[in-house]
Amino acid sequence: MDLDIVLQLADSSVRLATPLLLACLAGLYSERSGVFDIGLEGKMLIAAFFAAATAAVTGSAWVGLAAGLAASLVFSMLHAVASITFRGNQLISGVAINFLAVGMTALLGHTWFRQGGQTPQLVGDARFHAIELPGAARLADVPVIGPVYAEVISGHSILVYIAFLAVPLTWWVLYRTRFGLRLRAVGENPAAVDTAGISVPLLRYQALVITGILCGIAGAYLSTSMNAGFVREMTAGKGFIALAALIFAKWRPWPALFATLLFGLLEAIGIRFQNVELGGIGTIPVQFMQALPYILTVVILAGFVGKAIPPRAGGEPYVKEE
Amino acid sequence: MRRIPVWADVVLIPLINLLLAVFVSGLVVLYIGESPVKAMRVLLQGSIGSAYAWGYTLYYATNFIFTGLAVAVAFHARLFNIGGEGQAGLGGLGVALVMMAWDWPHWALALPAGIIASALFGAAWAAIPAWLQAKRGSHIVITTIMFNFIASALLVYLLVNHLKLPGSMSPETPPFPPGAHLPTAHEILAWVGVKFPKSPPVNIALLLALLAAFAVWVLIWRSRLGYEIRAFGHSEEAARYGGIAPVRIIMLTMLISGALAGMMAVNAVQGEAERLVLDSVQGAGFVGIAVALMGRSHPVGVILAAILFGMLYQGGVELEFEMPAISREMIVVIQALVILFTGALDNMVRLPVSRLFHRRGRGGGRAGAGGNG
Known about the structure:
The complex is a heterodimer of chains A (about 325) and B (about 375). By secondary structure, chain A is mainly alpha-helical.
């Protein structure tokens, strides 16, 4: 395999990993605070739709991003109200949010654009375009480092860089700030946090606001950067793969980066090597390559990679002692 | 939590939840620019307005009874099986393989064969997530969702590459032999001299679904295994202390759940399509979640909720036809709202209602209304 293919694979891994990374970090905040969130998928989907729809109408990707964030936040707060305030079942609330997103995006897409649930093709400023990092063209001729910098690191949209910057930022918030300490504590032992005079519901609401924002960026990236418009059910299980990556990463930010890059790489390989002849075995079916990320998710969840211990209070509504 | 009368728990609260879901759906219809009242009328007329409409409503309801029971059985062990979609898809594969393997002489032979094949295939597809949950602690919600995606890819592969008629363009199996045909309601009712329209696909699988509901009731409330399942669902610790093996309960519950979901194929694949097509499940596996939640995981509740969703599906087809502004996805929105209000936001209704009963109970000097709150 020559260097070109490796570089192409690395480049598309980064692009494919970005929505997973954002969703994975979104899940990290929520689950570290003790709230399960299987509704990442739905929040990404609704954000992708509103971002693309708004960008199509206003012609601005940034306005689209704002709309996507708002939609994702509304859904995140719905989950918060159901699982924190009303102490409902967090899994069921997540399922409801996922279906609501599937239904609402198709319904509103049909009503607004009449293109079979799709938004119009986004052109020009309605999309986030690739950014050439300084010096990429000049360094391109330097062996190894040059092409890596020019092909893999440079030339992505601003949202990709935001996603990758969110990793050190999350690490800093989680391990170096008071909020992060409390967040980690509330997911392990909410009663202790409560005893210290800190509001458990408030902390969890704050965590879910961050979750909503990150899912919103992920959705906007899908429809206004990676693709040029919204397609029905375009998240295709990415929210769940992100959850698996979160478990694989044991709820920590840096491992989350590597886990999602791994999934991105697998997807990139799947796309690159469709219908490739394997000596002796014959062609690998397209459907197998398409199913590969899902199969890998199961394999990883099966814990062949070591034991993952979730935050202890995860999934349990907190009931204040009287 | 304060105790409330049984009728409030099983009738009043689900009804209020449902009304809330219907109300919000009405707002959505209003936003689209259509009249919710007219939409409701079209929906009811289209789903229960005639024998023909009933024939379709009950056909859909049959699917949802199976998938609803599947989710309900798992709920009793506090397992959340979201894999009904994939399990029912594999059930369809099982039915198709068996029906095409032999020139079936009579439905009385083909029906049990279809039941066994669909149940086995459905159970097998649930077995891997179950085993991973029991042995490795892998989150069954995520694994069953992944298995839905994998099932869909597998079925596409098999239909496109192996099962379709050579030379045919459409990815579907050839029609099953005539002997595999299940009696429809039209034929069954003709035996007793009752006239019923010919085209609705409701068939003998409806009786099978009702039988399955009864069997689930016996299993959960009248058998030793059912007791263990419920005990496990209440408290894994206590169940373990009582000598109940978690691995065994998780495996058995999920196998039963998968088998029930798979048996949906007897209705949809063997009964209606009479061949295996792409996406034979059409979301019924997911509807099962809403049905089980609304039916409070009780077979009677599941049957009633399944009929309600059958009305929604059949009425939705008519709705799309009569009012094109409302697309078919309105059904998914309503389904999501039902799950939201009856499942996640249940306490929003339950707390005020129980407070109301508590106040009244105290005011009237009734004993025992306080419960163990």
